[in-house]
Amino acid sequence: MACHEPPSVSRSFVLLFTGMKIDSNVEKILMEVAAQSDAEPKFGAVIVRDGIILVTGFARKSAPESDLAVHPLLLIHAEESALLTALRGGIDLLGSDVFVLGMRSSGETRLTNSSYSCVVCSRLLTQSGIANVIYPTEDGWKKVSTDEMFHQAIERVREENT
């Protein structure tokens, strides 16, 4: 089945990261994926199962800058991008993990000690069968189940709306 990459991604770039083994260079791979983003901060997502990269995705603008200021949901998140690429390619994600990394244009990694994915991405990751989200914190990489990530994201939304 043919995989249809977004226009801003070269086929060689996608193939470079598909089927590659995950090792201690995961942060480097994530930074290379995130560097493709035209958003700020830049985000990248790498979905793996059994140490093999299944698919990658990065945040990108889906509308002119002026529209993004009005409605930030017009931005395609890295997790969404990876999920859509997997869907187009017929890739089964059941039981896989997703590494997510955000970075500034300067290359500085965005660290957090709270939920990393937004409520929409958390819901999509859970429903797609992905088991865990792995993201950088000040204390190193943190692994959280997608169910827990979804509940954290819901709590964050509740706090923001009170």
Layout: helices, strands, pairs:
Elements: H1 11-17, H2 26-34, E1 42-49, E2 52-58, E3 60-61, H3 65-70, E4 75-76, H4 78-89, E5 97-103, E6 109-110, H5 119-127, E7 132-137, E8 140-145, H6 146-160
Parallel strand pairs: 5-7
Antiparallel strand pairs: 1-2, 1-5, 3-4, 5-6, 7-8
- CATH superfamily label: Cytidine Deaminase, domain 2
Write down the domain tally. 1
CATH topology name, in short, is Cytidine Deaminase, domain 2
Q: What is the radius of gyration?
A: 15 Å
Distance between the termini: 47 Å
Counting DSSP H or I runs of 4 or more residues, the number of helices is 6
Structural class: alpha+beta
* Secondary structure: helix percent: 25-40%
Instruction: Give the CATH level 1 class.
Output: Alpha Beta
Shape: globular
What's the total number of strands?
A: 8
Mean pLDDT: 78
Q: Give a short account of the largest sheet.
A: 6 strands, mixed
- Percent of sequence in beta strands: 15-25%
Tell me what the CATH architecture is.
Answer: 3-Layer(aba) Sandwich
The helix/strand series, from N terminus to C terminus, equals HHEEEHEHEEHEEH
Ranges with pLDDT <50 over ≥5 residues? Answer: 1-18
